[in-house]
From TrEMBL:
Lineage of the organism: Bacteria, Bacillati, Actinomycetota, Actinomycetes, Micromonosporales
GO molecular function, one term: ATP binding
SMART domains: AAA
Classification via CDD domains: ABC_NrtD_SsuB_transporters (cd03293)
Keyword Zinc tagged: no
Entry superkingdom: Bacteria
Name used for this protein in its record: ABC transporter ATP-binding protein
Gene source species: Paractinoplanes deccanensis
Pfam families tied to this protein: ABC_tran (PF00005)
ATP-binding as UniProt keyword: yes
Length: 251
């Protein structure tokens, strides 16, 4: 379980309060998306969860322990693919297992499982430069999964791909998550994406960064394309959108 308790982040050099007072509990295997305007502190929250940055007030905990740095329990996937260009898909997915000292045969087996799960089996021996943006991001997801973290932290992972690929990646990610449940914290600018993926959508506002609304998405999984057109989905999207939009006009 992830627990943010009155988390505050002040960048002292800039005398800037990036996060005012953020409290949030995320249950195991929950899929939470975070939306909000640019500068509201989404990446700051992610960095704190990843252990790459630390709160200046309050506490960030995983399973009751204060986050003190990066750890194998948390896999991070960023917008930039961050694959090793000289390694094949298989070797990229195996990389974390190799550094963890997992024996070769087991490495192979695990990598194959996740490469298959993200639909890249036919490209296991391909180099990243020969893959499309969407395929690279699926490879990054397989690589994050392979080391078996209980939490996946995803910061705008589909921001750099075209709209159609993005929809496919969302479906692919949900398929993967349904088969291999993990706690997912997923940052996006895209309200549609936020609602389509999540159990809960967290809406943030800026100056200072804070949570203004948490919307429960009570639509069943698997989520389908038809669902995107349903009145229930539209109502949720409108609610999230107005929570994001109205703060902008007020500010
Ligand atoms: N190291 C830093 N020093 C000073 N200010 C910072 C630092 N890092 C971030 N900030 C500021 O904190 C605020 C929150 O930044 P953050 O990157 O978390 O926002 P965000 O919601 O992820 O934005 P975007 O959607 O544009 O990526 C911004 O106003 C940013 O300028």
């Amino acid at each position: 379980m992830i627990k943010l308790q009155h988390v505050r982040k002040v960048f002292a050099d800039a005398n800037f309060t990036a996060l005012g007072d953020v409290s949030l509990d995320i249950s195991d295997n929950e899929f939470v998306t975070v939306v909000g305007p640019s500068g509201c502190g989404k990446t700051t929250v992610m960095n704190i969860l990843a252990g790459l940055d630390f709160p200046t007030g309050g506490q960030a905990l995983v399973d009751g322990e204060t986050i003190s740095g990066p750890g194998p329990d948390r896999g991070v996937i960023f917008q930039q693919y961050a694959l090793f260009p000289w390694l094949t898909v298989r070797k990229n997915v195996e990389f974390g297992l190799r550094t963890a000292g997992v024996p070769r045969a087991e490495r192979r087996r695990t990598a194959e499982h996740f490469i298959d799960l993200v639909g890249l089996s036919d490209f296991a021996d391909a180099l990243p430069r020969t893959l499309s943006g969407g395929m690279k991001q699926r490879c990054a997801i397989a690589r994050a999964y392979a080391v078996n973290p209980s939490i996946l932290l995803m910061d705008e992972p589909f921001g750099a791909v075209d709209a159609l690929t993005r929809v496919r990646l969302q479906e692919q990610l949900l398929r993967t998550w349904s088969q291999e449940k993990r706690t997912v914290v997923f940052i996006t600018h895209d309200v549609d994406e936020a609602v389509f993926l999540a159990n809960r959508v967290v809406v943030m506002a800026a100056r200072p960064g804070r949570i203004v609304e948490v919307v429960d998405v009570d639509l069943p999984y698997p989520r389908t394309e038809e669902m995107r057109l349903s009145p229930a989905f539209t109502a949720l999207r409108n609610r999230v959108w107005s929570a994001v939009y109205h703060q902008e006009t007020v500010a």
